[in-house]
């Protein structure tokens, strides 16, 4: 079985089958680039992910392993209908997987899924965030996500007016 | 033996979590991730609310709003009154670029094969696209075809006579080049489009004068929900040849005379319609009417547009304010509450009106002053009385005193009494028609 070493930003090395790794768009590209540049076809690729720490990388790989037989989704699939595979049926495993995570971990997982181009994981984590903002007031969202209003003067009102053309009855 | 797809070795002990790294928050999310999140919000109302969180959210949500059609909102499912008017995008044609990850639905009125040859009409509903990028490597699903917008225009533009484009992020970076490649275009309908107008400093574009020579002789133009820059450029460019012009809700800047071509430049205009003007299109005081009888649609027939109409009226056969939300009410003048306050408007516009629709608020205003109708609307042929609750034909005759109207207003030939009935989620419209000969 062909393997690849995936190393996190804090130095932890994960030995992963290439078949599994290639379910990440980013890792797939890295493996193929390694193959093209390497003289030794038997050499084991080593990929360092400088933006993802071990704890998060482990979660991504865990999710990939669970979903290794799912069809790979095109990166732009959900642009059109506003929904991705997250809507098509989140499994109980996914729900259990996300349930214990605090918002900070979810945010990191989103960034990791986006960086590694793991569409399915990105979708379910974004869906989770969506569920945490839907139904909340603006102030509640600002509090929950530690966001501050940076509108100046009547900018907020101006933004609303400028985008009025999007708002069709 | 291990399965081929698996994680075969995990470090026995993971490094301790770095607290600095775990501080990631919403502000660290790249725009594409924010888009992904906002795209999952089904409610348009919620999206509009979320724009108030911060500037970055406002900007990203505006893009998301623009890239979706009303069919994709949960509210649409609740308020849609008429399922049969939905334009389903079948068959689909994908247009876009991999870099922008854009997808568009191209809606053809006929099957794709017949539409491509001779390709007479093309209706495009674009989610978001840079018009001059190449098609992406989108993997087609059964029943879909793919065509790049640029090759589409380049290869088929010569035959194209009707072009409908909608989608707010549809940008025309150099619209002059687009139109130069559509020499036989007769009808153009733009909805939710934006553009930067002519950029003469662009090295790829030829001079305005050269391009102008190649522009089509456009006869019919509809512009709705378009950015002012684009609307201005198109109006000014094609004003002399237009025979039919429909304007609605053109935004960003106030809808004022100075933003538009001089009325005299519309030398061939025979048909002019304005519709669903809104607050932002007409800054300043206006008249809002709650159209309770028409699916709760909020309509603004603004004082400004009526003034704007005046210069055109003298060369038009009839004044038309097209109320497009309901086809049954098309081609009538719907009186806003303060319409006609200006003597000029009354003098110039009212004699041109052949069809008039009034609502109870106007009924009250007019106090059934039939003499006023007779004097103000000497050429009125049809009077439509709207916004009644369910009524029988006999009741309508009594309630509206139809015989009295016919007697007092000899110019009126037909009276219609419009009423609606409600069933859950739907509003149905009905009409009793009375002619002078009936009495």
TrEMBL record, chain A:
Pathway assigned in UniProt: Protein modification; protein ubiquitination
Domain SKP1 component POZ: 4-69
Occurrences of domain SKP1 component dimerisation (ranges): 119-166
Listed InterPro entries: SKP1 (IPR016897), SKP1-like (IPR001232), SKP1-like_dim_sf (IPR036296), SKP1/BTB/POZ_sf (IPR011333), Skp1_comp_dimer (IPR016072), Skp1_comp_POZ (IPR016073)
Matching Gene3D superfamilies: Potassium Channel Kv1.1, Chain A
Keyword Ribonucleoprotein annotated: no
SUPFAM superfamilies: POZ domain, Skp1 dimerisation domain-like
Keyword ATP-binding appears in the UniProt entry: no
Keywords: Ubl conjugation pathway
Similarity comment: family membership: Belongs to the SKP1 family.
Name of the protein in question: S-phase kinase-associated protein 1
Organism name: Orchesella dallaii
Lineage: Eukaryota, Metazoa, Ecdysozoa, Arthropoda, Hexapoda
UniProtKB/TrEMBL annotation, chain B:
Domain of life: Eukaryota
Residues of the F-box domain: 23-79
Classification via PROSITE patterns: FBOX (PS50181)
UniProt cross-references to Gene3D superfamilies, sorted A to Z: 1.20.1280.50, Ribonuclease Inhibitor
SUPFAM superfamilies: F-box domain (SSF81383), RNI-like (SSF52047)
The protein, known as: F-box domain-containing protein
Organism from which the protein derives: Orchesella dallaii
